[in-house]
Write a structure and sequence with these properties.
CATH topology of the largest domain: Four Helix Bundle (Hemerythrin (Met), subunit A)
Structural class: alpha+beta
Shape: elongated
Radius of gyration: 20 Å
Mean pLDDT: 84
Strand content: 5-15%
CATH architecture of the largest domain: Up-down Bundle
CATH class of the largest domain: Mainly Alpha
Distance between the termini: 22 Å
Low-confidence stretches: none
Largest sheet: 4 strands, mixed
Strand order of the largest sheet: 3-2-1-4
Oligomer: single chain
């Protein structure tokens, strides 16, 4: 699969999940041979409310700007039965998680020079705002990964900053079909980042204080590496168990 196709499929999956889909699968000829523009992309979805199925499909078609077939796995018909029985569906949850992790690393790399600078010198007010944005983006990405995992295993979260702590706590607990995602030790290390995100949702920029943010910023890369290591263990265990 090319990187361009991968990004296109992930974009479509994000749109479908925004409409309430709990699972999105990629299958068909494009999944097995080299991608060409004349081939339609085949996707299958479950959990999508029937009353907005066509609206969701229209949004996907508009975003992808190419032919796309969307199969509703919640329907009972011979085609759906055939797909399920022949194992043609290819869940892309772990690929999406890895893609989100890559984006988080790229984000921290983009601000790496600034982070190195403030290890030795006080940041300017403008730099403080930029670094606050880094912390916001970091935990937003982590929270998105938690949301993907919850949806991929038949769950979901309420929206909003105030629900981040609840989502985090659910990730240290086993759920139907999956083990715990992260350890309790990592959960406690992530709590200050949640708290900052909650404050950042409601505070004014002039209320931000570097002394209160400093450790969070300087330890961000280490936290991301620990998070990635535990996610990799989770994905390897579930890939091995099928």
């Amino acid at each position: 699969m090319t990187e361009d196709l991968k990004k296109l499929i992930l974009k479509a999956a994000d749109i479908l999940q925004s409409y309430g889909a709990t699972e999105v699968f990629f299958f068909g000829s494009v999944a097995k041979v080299a991608d060409t523009e004349d081939r339609p992309i085949d996707l299958a979805v479950s959990g999508l409310p029937p009353e907005i199925f066509y609206q969701a499909m229209g949004s996907v078609l508009s975003a992808m700007k190419r032919r796309c077939n969307l199969v509703d796995l919640d329907e009972k018909n011979p085609y759906v039965d055939y797909l399920k029985s022949h194992g043609k569906l290819q869940p892309d949850l772990f690929s999406r998680i890895r893609n989100e992790l890559q984006q988080l690393h790229q984000m921290l790399d983009r601000y790496g020079a600034l982070i190195d600078k403030v290890r030795k010198a006080e940041p300017s007010p403008v730099e403080v705002i930029a670094l606050a944005g880094v912390l916001q983006l970091l935990y937003s990405g982590i929270d998105k990964i938690f949301t993907l995992i919850a949806a991929g295993y038949g769950g979901g979260f309420r929206k909003g900053c105030s629900c981040a702590a609840e989502a985090l706590e659910r990730m240290v607990m086993p759920a139907p079909g999956r083990s715990a995602v992260i350890s309790k030790v990592l959960m406690e290390q992530l709590r200050p980042y949640i708290s900052f995100r909650q404050v950042f949702c409601y505070t004014y920029s002039y209320d931000l204080g570097w002394a209160k943010m400093r450790n969070l910023v300087l330890e961000a890369e280490e936290i991301l590496l620990l998070f990635e290591a535990e996610l990799n263990c989770f994905m390897e265990n579930h890939a091995a168990s099928g």
